[in-house]
Amino acid sequence: MAGTTTTTTAGRGPRKDEGRRKTQEEPHARLEERTREELYELAGELGIAGRSDMTKSELIEAIRRR
Q1: Are the C-beta atoms of residues 37 and 52 closer than 8 Å to each other?
Q2: Which terminus of the chain is more exposed, N or C, with fewer CB under 10 A?
Q3: Rounded to 5 degrees, what are φ and ψ at 17?
Q4: How far apart are CA 61 and CA 51, in angstroms?
């Protein structure tokens, strides 16, 4: 079709997933290398109660006990 343009993602900056941290890409990354948010999500998947009040160290300990 003459006169039409195609919209591309070029020039819009990096895609949302391009800046992912290494730990998010490696499911078996050391717990200490993960962020508190990542540990919180993992704790939720494991059904750990009280995780919202836990520090990063406490989350690691609770996850290891599972």
Answers
A1: no
A2: N
A3: -90, -5
A4: 11
Distance of alpha carbon 43 from alpha carbon 51, whole angstroms: 7
- The tokens describing 37, both together, are 């948010």
Query: pLDDT by residue (tens digit) across 17-66?
Result: 545 555 455 666 799 999 999 999 999 999 999 999 999 999 999 999 99
Distances (CA, A) of 25 to 22, 34, 59, 60: 5, 11, 20, 19
**DSSP state for residue 52 in the 8-state scheme:** G
For residue 61, the one-letter residue type is E
Helices (H), 1-66: 22-25, 36-45, 56-65
